[in-house]
Design brief:
Largest sheet: 4 strands, antiparallel
Shape: globular
Distance between the termini: 22 Å
CATH architecture: 2-Layer Sandwich
Bound molecules: adenosine-5'-diphosphate
CATH topology: Alpha-Beta Plaits
CATH superfamily: Nucleoside diphosphate kinase-like domain
Structural class: alpha+beta
Helix content: 25-40%
Number of strands: 4
Strand order of the largest sheet: 2-3-1-4
Order of helices and strands: EHHEHHEHHEH
Radius of gyration: 14 Å
Length: about 140
């Protein structure tokens, strides 16, 4: 077991549909602690960085458009094995293939409109927490 902090983005679909509380309840019920939370409109620059691994895909402009269709809420979640356990709660990228009981299986629409982002490794969590939170914005309590 490893104590970790993961970077979550509640995506525009979750914010627009008023499902932030439901998604956060699942994370809190699983025992994760909120260390930071911030509502943001994502710029082209931050999205190009965050989705650099998809920049050459034909659907990249569509992802940017979706991610800018409403604000997102960036959340830092801390707990034991937070990175893999949060992704297990979320389910696979394609919501239509996600099992019922997972966040994407219950609330997601498709491959793109899938409720939330969550860091996929300790290395990406470290980079993503820096990307979305400034020094001093992750709080101890
Ligand atoms: P994940 O978010 O599950 O880690 P990826 O890093 O592969 O998945 O993709 C980032 C995001 O880009 C996905 O969550 C989804 O919103 C979008 N995306 C990925 N693949 C596709 C695709 N084939 N068509 C449309 N959108 C996609």
């Amino acid at each position: 077991m490893s104590h970790q902090t993961s970077l979550i983005l509640l995506k525009p679909d979750t914010v627009s549909k008023g499902r932030c509380g439901e998604v956060m309840k699942r994370f809190e019920d699983a025992g994760f602690k909120i260390r930071g939370a911030k509502m943001m409109k994502l710029s082209n620059e931050i999205l190009a960085e965050h989705y650099a691994h998809l920049a050459d895909k034909p659907f990249f402009p569509t992802i940017v458009e979706f991610m800018q269709s409403a604000p997102v809420i960036a959340v830092a979640l801390e707990g034991e094995d937070a990175i893999s356990r949060v992704r297990d709660l979320l389910g696979p990228t394609d919501s239509t293939k996600a099992e019922k009981g997972t966040i994407r299986g219950d609330l997601g629409e498709d491959m793109m409109i899938n409720c939330a982002h969550a860091s996929d490794s300790p290395e990406s969590a470290a980079a993503e927490l820096k990307r979305f939170f400034n020094e001093g914005e992750l709080l101890d309590y």
